[in-house]
Every structure is written in structure tokens, then in C-alpha cells.
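Researcher: Please translate sequence to C-alpha cells.
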Amino acid sequence: MDGGQLVSKGVNPYKHQEATALRHALRTDSVAHFDFVDETQERWDNYASSNLPLSLLLYGAIDSVSSANGLLYRLVFMFFDALLAVLIAQIILRYWRLEHQWQYILLIGGLGICNPILLHWGAVVPEEKGLQILLMLGAWYFAREKKWGFSAVLLGMSVAFKGLGIFIAPLCLYEVTSLQKTALKRGALYILLSAGACLIWFLPYMPEVFGMMQTRLSDNIANIPEHSSIWVPVYQLTPRYWETVRYAVMALFVLLHLWAIYKKKISLLLICCSVLLFFVDITLNAGSIDRMNIGFLSVIMIIGTCYPWHGIRMGLAYIILGGLTRLLGKPFPGVAELMDSLFCIVLLLYYTGMLITLLKQSSQTTIHLDETEYSHSRA
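Model: Translation complete:
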């Protein structure tokens, strides 16, 4: 909200020496007050500018309509979550090959309409991470539909909003160019349009925004784990050796994929999903469940189009465990984030087990990196 107030007043949030009097006034007012953040001006400036340009521009647009209106923020974020629910329903109905009607109802309801994590981190706690998922899945969906213009714009926006759209860019590029006679030309136009749809939001805030990006990335990788990071339980069990465990797990995860690529046993779809999960849910140390959810929900939706049975099982685990952690976190707030960490660990273990199973199943065949094994429609 503080960043939105700066943007709505025409101030560059990333240039901390600009409008110092206004920054001091915003830090000391009662809006979005948080003792830790507001303790020093330097810390307030860092938090107010801690998001990428498109995120801050969204906050600024909301603040321009009604300044410091928490309810309006909540309604806007809920609106985007509702659009995401519609997109999830469309993807499942069009691309998931399910055998029973109840599976469609349960998955559309649990992953979309009544998603326990999005209801908590979107409606109860105003957060906009659902919009990041919407942009990413939207880019991928329109790429599959060969509507490359829409896909390119959404992909660029998904990078400018939270940065994470970059991890599905290769998959989107493949989708818009596959089975096309003018694949090279279309691919070049797609890259140019995506880059333009991303960079246009950065231009007013360059070069200061890059300093923020470097600082945040460093803080989220190098610091001790907190919030819903999968490394929180490891740190609590062994504060001295948690980093050794972390690096060992990361190395094994990477080596598994390098081996699969070398043996040509893994598709581009799985590579993109794994890289997204590796960055968001394994590498970063300081994310709350709303950030971790970007990786999990996006991957479940994409995986289900190729491997419906794994999509169903991972989706059901997500719905059940997500609901339980929301319910148990209310009477036991002291361990709510620890339960979120365990939730993330279970989903990552399932994904890794699924990957190993698929690699074993493909031991007698070769899967090219550009192979997509899913149908393009439910005829």
C-alpha cells in the first residue's frame, strides 16, 4: 500500500532520495502501519519499493481511485482470483482427460473456486499472487490456443509483475511455434512482443529498479529460512548443518534433471515445471505460502494436461493439505507457517516421486526435449 501511495503521487519508489518529506509523512502515518517496517526510514523505503514495476503500478492505480483504501485492494485482488478460477476451470475442462464427472467438479472447486490458499491469501489477507498465477497460466493457455499475441503480452506482464513468468517462457514459445510453417518468424515476433510487454513497465524506473532486484534476490537466497520456506523445519532441527542439507538436496535435484536431459528422458514441459519449482519453492528462503503457491498451483495445472492421473493426485493433495493447514493454522497461529512449510515439503516430495516414476516408465523410450505428450483438445 505504501508503494502504491508513492506511485499515485508520481514518486519513483526505487529512488529513495526523491520526495523525502512525503516518504517521512507516509512512514509515520497510520496507514498500513507495521512497527518493524516503520521503525526506520531506510527500512520503510526498502519495503515500499520491494516489488517489481507492474506490481507497484497496480497498487498506484488502486490508490489513485481511493487512497489508502484497504477494502478496495481486497476487492481488486479477489476479482483477479475470480478470473483465475474461471481460467482454471477452462484448462481442466478443455485439456485434462478425466474419467469421472466428480473429478472435474472436485478439482475445479478445490483448485479454482474454493481454493483454500487463494481464499486465505487473497480474500482474508489481501494479496495479489493470484494475479501472477493468472498471467502465467493465461500466457500458457493462449500459447496452446495459438493466440500468440495475447500470450506474448501476458507473458511479458507476468515477468514485469513478479518475474516468475520467465520460467514458462520456453514452453510458451514452443507452443506458439509448433506445427507452424512460419515457426521462425512467429517465434521472433513472439519474443519481441513479450520483451516489449515486459520492458515497457521497467523504463520509467530504470536503473534504480535493478538495485532493488539484486538486493531482494540476495536476501531471499542467502539469509536464514523464514515464513513458509521448506528449509524452516531443517533449520529448526539442525541450525548448524541446515545449509549443508539444503545444498545437498539442491544438487541431487539438479543432477536428476541433468541425467534425464542427457538420456533424453524428459520433456520440455517437465523441465519448465521443475525449474519453476526449483527457484520458487526450493531456492528462495523467505517466502510465505502465497509465494510458494505460485509454483505449486501453476505446475499442477500444467502437469494435469500431460499426466492427468498425477495431476489429480497432486491436485487432491494440494486441496486436502491446503484446507487442513488453513483450518489448523487458525487455532494454532504459532505453528501456522511451520505447517505451511510441511505442506510445501509434501508437495515437492510428491512431484519428485512423480518425476522419478515417469523417468522409469520412459526407460525403454526416448523423449525429445520438445515433445509434448498431451492432446490439444478434448474432442
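Researcher: Any highlights?
Model: The radius of gyration is 21 Å.
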